Amino acid sequence: MATTANIGIQYQNRLMHLIKTLNFYDTDNELSLFEQLLSTRVYVVSLLITLFITISFASIIPQTRLITVSLPSPNNFEKLADSYRSTIICHCSQATMYHKELFSFNPQFHQVCSSNLIDEEWFSSLFNTLTNNYYPLDFRLMASAQFQILSLLCRISRQTIYDALSDFYTTSFFSARALTRAVYNDYMITLFQQFNTTTLTNHRIYNNFISSIIDEHRFISALRTNFYTRSIPDSDKYETFPAIYPKNVNLTQSSFISNGICRCDQTSSCIYPAGIYNQSKVIIPNEVFIHDASLQFVVPGFQVGCVPQNALLQSTLECFYNQSCLDIVIKLTGALPTVRALNMSNFSRFDPTTTLSIIFDQLMLESWHNSTDFVAYFRICAPKTCTYSYKQRFYIIYIITVVTSLVGGLSMPAFIYNLKLKNELLLILIYLKLTEMKT
Fold it and tell me: Could you give phi then psi for residue 93, rounded to 5 degrees?
């Protein structure tokens, strides 16, 4: 312990001796030893104060550091993007890419479009030589035509979807800089929403155009559901009469419907609940179609009307979700007995009571089943470097640089200044000494 204390005292004494004898001047300098020591101490103190102020400011003021990373991986980029979201810049080596490289689609359609309800074998079994003799309110008159149309609606929907996807896949996407995952996902969601909206809009425009043509030209149905003709006795001429349907109390009123009837020469949208009747009736010109006691069964949700297509679109498939209901239809129509009902437990965004008009308006589509891959996008983008910056205080390299520059720049001016300051200090000391002697 004593030895350690003695060593400490020795070092302390040496330090004090070094401070007292510190002298930056040569021994042959014209200044006296006192003046040399005083000037050295003033210089050292000034330099220390300057260094303290400089280091304090250099440490406190934040400095911008610019970092460059070569060939970043997707994981590395995401980590950097999370930490330096506002400053990171990665220029894509391939700025243009196709949607096919970024998106994946597996569209899922309403289950009716994959059921045997749209098979030719099914709707052919609904047609026979007596079909044209059924009364216009009878389900059997237009059932075969309606299920053929349902099959057509499914094919139109599929073709529309696949054509839209084909165009979408060949559309290019431009990305000059690598996007963060969050920004990329937002872009892809927006692109998909625009694609979905455009596809549905174009489908509706086309569908409305076809419907307007049918309504405008008032085609005569071969099933005698909107117009029927008869020969004029003793003449080779024919006269045509419009079909007149009774108004269903649950149907929406319109300007074409008055006095409880709906005329097919005024609108092609007249409908009535489809039923199966024991016997047929003769159509009487200008007489409202009416049902009577011969009605055997009403097919829930299904409609008949002026035009098979319009009646179908205003129908629902609720009966065909119920095997018991379907069995009754099969029994009364003599249709294909192997057809199975739609599966109620299958997920669907459409309720069984949803009209086919609404389902077809959505292209019979349950889900696009779309996905997009950020990693695939980043690999196509393939930035060669990523640059980011951040603010840092107490950056040691910067502090050393500033201090080195300052010491190198201030040593000589400070030394010259100290010579002048030394003279002033000497005058002050002489003055204080004289004052002391007088007192």
Answer: -80, -20
Give the bridge partners for 70, in sequence order.
Answer: 385
Instruction: Indicate the angle between helix axes 374-381 and 74-83, nearest 10 degrees.
Output: 100
Low-confidence spans in the chain with pLDDT less than 70: 1-2, 17-36, 55, 57-64, 248-259, 291-293, 391-399, 401-403, 405-439
Q: Which residues does residue 367 pair with via DSSP β-bridges, in sequence order?
A: 108
Domain residue spans of the chain: 36-61+394-433, 108-170+220-367
What is the rounded CA–CA span in Å between residue 133 and residue 130?
A: 5
Q: In 3D, which of 113, 80, 33 has the Cα closest to residue 342?
A: 113
* CA distance linking residue 26 with residue 175, whole number of Å: 69
pTM of the predicted model as reported, rounded to 2 decimal places: 0.73
CA angle 100, 376, 187 (to 5 degrees): 70
Length of the chain: 439
Q: Which residue type does 55 have? A: I
Nearest to 356 by CA among 113, 30, 45, 191: 113
CB-CB contact of 391 with 84 (8 Å): no
Nearest Cα to 90, choosing from 179, 172, 174?
Answer: 179
Q: Which residues of 255-293 are buried (b: 16+ CB within 10 A; e: fewer)?
A: eebeeeebbbebbbbbbbbbbbbeebbeeeeeeebebee
CA angle 197, 209, 222 (to 5 degrees): 130
